[in-house]
Please model this.
Amino acid sequence: MAGQIPFHKPSITQAEIDAVEAVLRSGWLTSGPKARELEAAVTKYVGSSDSASPSSAPGTELHGVALSSCTAALHLALIAAGVGQGDEVITSPYTFVSTGETILYLGAKPVFVDVEPSTKNLDPSKLDSALTKKTKAIVMVSIAGHPCRTQEVAKMTRGRNIHIIEDAAHSLTARLGETPVGTQADITCFSFYATKGVTAGEGGMAVMGREDWADRIRRLCLHGLSDAAWSRYGSGGWWDYDVTELGYKYNLTDIQAALALAQMARAEEMRKRRESIARRYTEALRGVPGIKTPSVAPGVRHAWHLYQIAVARAAPVQTVGNKASQEEGRGTGRDALSLALRADGIGTSVHFKPLHLFRWYQERLGFSTGQFPVAERCFEETLSLPIYPDLSDSDVDRVADRIRAHMGASK
Ligand SMILES: Cc1ncc(COP(=O)(O)O)c(C=O)c1O
Model:
């Protein structure tokens, strides 16, 4: 059998290793100068000059707060937006658990709106019926790296005192037209998790136009202390601090920040490689029966965090005479294809099982299967293929060839 093709492999060069080593030798490991540098690098990357944050005037400077995860960023963003007990927060069920759980941490109620089949992002045409007097915020999720229609939703809710938060865990390098992700919502939350386009191993960032919110998130991520260690122990610092509100331990270490900074310097190059892999898959899988390749809306620059195909639930049975595929054709559909790829040493994954299908959400919150049919159908069909900068063209071809064979496509 040919070598393994893992679902993901991080792209780590000597630059990342040197950057982390320098921090280890520096005498300062926790949040400090590197975390601040990362905040500057990310806000510069997403662009402050054409900021279109609905809560701030165009051209407003962006503020970034480096955090331990995107989950932490979502939690603190919701607090900054004033979400609390009894409020309603609209989001899509087609997301990772972080989006839902952070709403629940605050005693607020997640209200789901079904997704668009083409992008799996919240469908703005279905938003109206979910809006109530209790709606305090909307969390838009950009799945796979395809930006969501955040600005459209912001326009629809203008004047209603509803804050828009974007869960952009997948889409740091994405743009919608000329507008970078990170400038469309009141607060945008990014992830530097191990598999993300820019990684710190674990990490995240909240980016926003409002300085008062950024200051509050900065305090909340360090126990609500009035002064962080870096300023207390730096030259001219003083030991004393106050606690101004109940906080959390959500800061990002300088070790992680240094790794993410080295990745930021390669963000564009890595995004381009992902884009070229996506193009190669799409070309190779064109016309394969039972397979739909991802669609990209006009004017979108996709981050390609994930390359998700849709596998028809009742895919055509293998063609007569194609012996190899008859032997391997153990049923059809997404899971059969995933198993066939696994047997050939190719890792795949599924993103995501919609939140309302989880037992906890059904038993504790009363959601039920069938409530969000588009999300459910997308989930049943979706399969994420390997996509990362170090994946070679021949690896891509091998994955595509195996899919073609399994689905009974002609050579
Ligand atoms: C859509 C989405 N939101 C939030 C998160 C949480 O990110 P983190 O692991 O940095 O907390 C993830 C993680 O993969 C995600 O996929």
Notes: The first helix runs from residue 14 to 26. The chain has 14 helices and 13 strands. The chain has two domains: 14-264, 267-406.
